Amino acid sequence: MPARLLSRWLHRPQQVWLRRALFQLHLWLGLALGLYVVVLSLTGSVLVYRIELDRAFASPRAQLRSDVAPMNAEQIRAAVARGYPGWTITELYEGRYVARGGPRGSGRGGRAADPTASVYLQRDGETKRRLFDPYTGVDLGDSFTRGQSSVLWMVRLHDELLMRSAGRWWNGALSCAFTLIVLTGMIVWWPGVARSTRSLRLDTRSGWRRFNWDLHSVLGFWLFPLMLIWGVSGWYLGIPEPLSALAERYSDMVGESDERPGDAVLAMLTQLHFGRWRTPVWGPWLKALWAVVGLIPAAMFVTGTVMWWNRVVRRRKLPE
Question: Is 145 helix (H, G, I), strand (E, B) or coil?
């Protein structure tokens, strides 16, 4: 970069043509992808707690008991028929009473014992799948509740935009575009040496328009690494081939090892994307933090749109 151009970039970046071009790219990409960014941001924050939500919405399960014998299949059928007269029992699955490799109900050596019975019912073309307690015959609820269905719908919206396999590709492509928004945003953030320190902090005493500008700038700078991770990892989850090939090439350059560095990086990106940690102490705190900061892309779109409205749309509406 010539010395004169470098000096302008350091002290008066707003006068550099490349910076103005990147600003326009950042602006119009951000506006075009706004709805997508908001939807992915909101659903991603909620789905940090996907496992917990699924458990909360699930019907209760029967508890393994040693003080009473469970009903046999015919007795369960009779209990179901009393609760659902006119319905036909098409399938009945009894629960697990003894875990493999351990005594009754121990759970050692295999899946934990779950005595809950699952029953399929049909009438006039309508099908139900209900859970029953095999000790009492009590109807426990739907095998898959509406709440669980809502969580699954949100997962499909976040992962594949409700478009199945084609949606994953589009999600990857749009995440790549979001990555470009993040990178151009970091470039156009640079205000010049004289104002660089001012752009790192939020002045709550300024007017609302300046506050909105500062909020967009400060959030964009300090949370740039996280948004870049979300963009790249979303790209990888939707269109994995380019990054997988790059990781494989890099790993081959490093040499043979039990765990290839490229694969480890991609696995870490996936873990960071979903906010999943196995650390027992810090895990809950990190998940809570991830759920909160996951809202930042949506906040960036809102603040950016307000900036554009004030600088472009509102100015055009003012009387001359």
Answer: coil
Task: Determine the angle formed by the axes of helices 50-57 and 34-47, rounding to 10 degrees.
Answer: 60
Q: How many CB atoms lie within 10 A of CB 255?
A: 8
Nearest to residue 35, comparing CAs of 130, 237, 177?
177
CA atoms of 232 and 65, how far apart (whole Å): 49
**Segment 6-29, tens digit of pLDDT:** 788 788 888 889 999 999 999 999
pTM given for the model: 0.85
199-226 b/e (C-beta count within 10 Å ≥ 16 → b): beeeeeeeeeeeebbbbbbbbbeebeeb
Residue 314 to residue 249: CA distance in whole angstroms: 51
Q: Which residues contact 174 (CB under 8 A, 6 or more apart)?
A: 33, 36, 234, 238
- Residue 19, both tokens: 């910076």
Residue with tokens 């950016």: 304
Cα–Cα distance measured from residue 47 to residue 275, given in angstroms and rounded to the nearest whole number: 9
Q: What's CA 248's distance to the chain center, in Å?
A: 26
Hey, what are 232's tokens? Answer: 């790249």
